[in-house]
Amino acid sequence: MNKIRMALLAFLLVLFTTLTSTTYGLSGKTLSQGIYSARDSNLLIGTPMTVKIDSPSGKAIIFILDSDYSMKEMVKLESESTEHTLKPFDYGSLIIVVGNSSVTFF
Fold first, then answer.
1. What domain of life is recorded for the organism (predicted)?
2. What residues make up the domain containing 47?
């Protein structure tokens, strides 16, 4: 009986962890103009993320810097390019958002 309870508890723990991480990944995080740390912004670390511009008439440039402040990636988002997939973030990544529109990471 104790083994069944432990197996059920382990199954529920794995199920809960999977559902919450999937929900977190789909909900998205909106950032406006500014400088953000990937860790402090609660963005997913180690997995590619997609970024999209929120305003159809807005423009934004996103700079991704790694932990030694070298540029890892730069993305320019305009009304024609609504989404872009970014390389995975690491714990020391900095995200710089410049423009007249906020962007959403998901």
1. Bacteria
2. 28-105
